[in-house]
Amino acid sequence: MGKFFSNGLLLKFKIKRTDEIIMDLNSYEEFLDKAYEKVPENVKRSSRFETPKVRLRIESRNTFITNFNKIIFTLNRDKRHFLGIFLKKAGTMGEIRGQQLFLKGQYKDQVLNRLIENYTKTYVLCSICKKPDTQIQREGKKYYLKCTACGAREEIREK
To answer: Which of 14, 133, 136, 144 makes the best surface tag, with the fewest CB within 10 Å?
Structure first.
């Protein structure tokens, strides 16, 4: 006797009486191991999200982030929100020019990548489940990060 689950796996067990189910724990562990082996590697990873890295072009004393739109799309945030915080943390002036972000001054990719990672930790990733499925909500003067994956809601505190 056994029971089929929605994923197509069969869990075997013996029925001693109609109201009591007995299952050997060793066979249960083996069952779990076999099921885990069938899970694809990309699903086993704890997160499907990777913080985007900048691609730069430096002209004289100016820096252009050439993949700015891709970064915004990956982070799933409003350009103005990201730009305001990013420029403030970078301590420079800048503007969007077409598909690129123009920054006044020369910057190394490590510095800009660290700023994007900090933004991602504060404004994108859920602090509970670490997933990027979040939305920024405003109530009065406070901003909250609402996770659509786990339902957590936390006040955003700038660092």
So the answer is: 14
